[in-house]
Amino acid sequence: MSDCLSDIRVLELGQVLAGPYAAMILGDLGAEVIKVESPAGGDSARRTPPHFYKGESIYFMALNRNKRSVVIDLAVKEGRRVFYDLVRKSDIVIDNLRFGVLEQLEIDHQVLVQYNPRIISCSINGYGSETPDRFKPSFDLMMQARGGGMSLTGVPGGPPMRMGVSISDHVAGIYAATGILAALHERARTGKGRRLEVPLFSTMISLLSYEAALHLYSGETPGPVGSGHRSLMPYNAVETRDGHIVIDAHLPKFWSALCAALQSDAIASDPRFDTLDVRNRNRDKLLEILNGIFATKTSREWLAILDEKGVPCAPINDLKAALEDEITKALHMVVDIEHKGIGLTFQAVGNPIGMSKEGEGPYRSPPLLGEHTTAVLREIAEYSDLEIARLLRDGVVTQKAETES
Questions:
Q1: What does 49-96 look like in DSSP terms, one character per residue?
Q2: CATH, domain range 235-315
């Protein structure tokens, strides 16, 4: 996508989502990303269903473009030596392994700085390195549950709900990439690397944002509000003749525009609705009236009317409709990626960071397992062909693909 980070090399020890997502963001921005995988099948996302192209997981492909793959057995001393040699020539190491694994493998930051004082190490883990639960296995579901997110998702009186996307994993990846960029900026001044840690749990807590502030101020414990917003009204889904749309008319100018669009002088002059405070207090009654009015026309009809009056509104798209939306296309958010390893082009969502076109290129293929082992050891570690052959023979490294790209 960009060549902004073309002078930066990343070693990714990533599994499934958060770590690979952080590294993919950096790869999209031009960094050289080398995915270091184990000989026991590599990233477990490679085996994640439901769909596969010629044995390659779509889940894996969606999270691992713009990377090269090497297979190194880090459980053996010789494998760690190979990894250290790559660290000498790299800028960043990203992992999302369970806490303690890096220390067991002797590849934690305290070890790596001995080989490269400029290295930036970023670990994404579950509960942080200094908490009682640091050794616990952790996934996005646990974070959404324990971190309060599920208590805010769903409808009042209903069961707690998980968000439809792995929010803590994705946002942790974004936080990690952000922290890494800050550390790179600092290193340009000091010449020294830094260790970063992004716990999934603290990521989830950070997303509580204004909901947390409300509780900390008032002592109230908020619950779910469905499609609405506890502080703004109207700001929610409304039911039309053939479905639902969303509207936001909480600001005075938009409330006036909504009343004009609905051609309802009664609502406009009703003292129960003339300010945001009273609309919030009378939200159930207002929503009942709005649904009654919106039920008289189709979603398409209402969206046209609301757009004409300048009322913020939108259709509620399913995933198919969202990906086919004209704005999605205009922003080039569905991209074609050539997968050289299996000889086809597939589609995935793109990177939302818009930059000037200069220097931009196509997204590069996600790698086959161990596809670039030989090339990386030759080009970066500067190993001889004889040395590489010995490592391959001894099973320290593995070259799985027949070709290198």
A1: -S-EETTEEHHHHHH--SEEEEEE-TTSHHHHHHHHHHHHT-SEEEE-
A2: 3.30.1540.10
Question: Is residue 1 scored above 90 in pLDDT?
Answer: no
Q: Which class would CATH give 9-207+327-398? A: alpha beta
CB 33 within 8 A of CB 13: no
pTM for this entry: 0.93
Q: What is the distance between the alpha carbons of residues 54 and 49, in angstroms, rounded to a whole number?
A: 13
Active-site hit among 73, 91, 95, 169: 169
> Which tens digit of pLDDT belongs to each residue from 131-182?
999 999 999 999 999 999 999 999 999 999 999 999 999 999 999 999 999 9
φ/ψ of residue 327, rounded to 5: -75, -40
Q: Which two tokens stand for residue 65?
A: 């473009």
DSSP 8-state code for residue 260:
H
pLDDT at residue 404, rounded to an integer? 41
Of the two residues 312 and 54, the one the predictor is more confident about is: 312
Could you tell me which of 381, 385, 394, 389 has the C-alpha nearest to residue 36? 381
Q: Would you call 169 a catalytic residue per the annotation?
A: yes
Q: How confident is the model at residue 337 (pLDDT cuts 50, 70, 90)?
A: very high
The CA-to-CA distance between both ends of the chain, in Å, stands at 18
Q: Which of 296, 292, 244, 254 is nearest to 276 (CA)?
A: 254
The pLDDT tens digits for 218-247 are 999 999 999 999 999 999 999 999 999 999
Q: Are strands 32-37 and 9-13 parallel, antiparallel or unpaired?
A: parallel
State the pairing for strand pair 56-57/52-53.
Answer: antiparallel
* Bond before 156 cis per omega within 30 degrees: no
**What are 16-43's pLDDT values in tens digits?**
999 999 999 999 999 999 999 999 999 9
CA 78 to chain centre: 34
CB 194 within 8 A of CB 142: no
CA-to-CA distance for 140 and 177, rounded, in angstroms? 18
> Residue 108, SS3?
coil
Nearest in space to 56 (alpha carbons), one of 65, 166, 173: 65
pLDDT band at 403 (very low <50, low <70, confident <90, very high): very low
Locate the domains of the chain by residue range.
9-207+327-398, 235-315
Count of residues in the chain: 405
Structure tokens at 72: 């190194």
Report residue 377 as tokens: 């050891």
Rounded CA gap, 232 and 240, in Å? Answer: 21
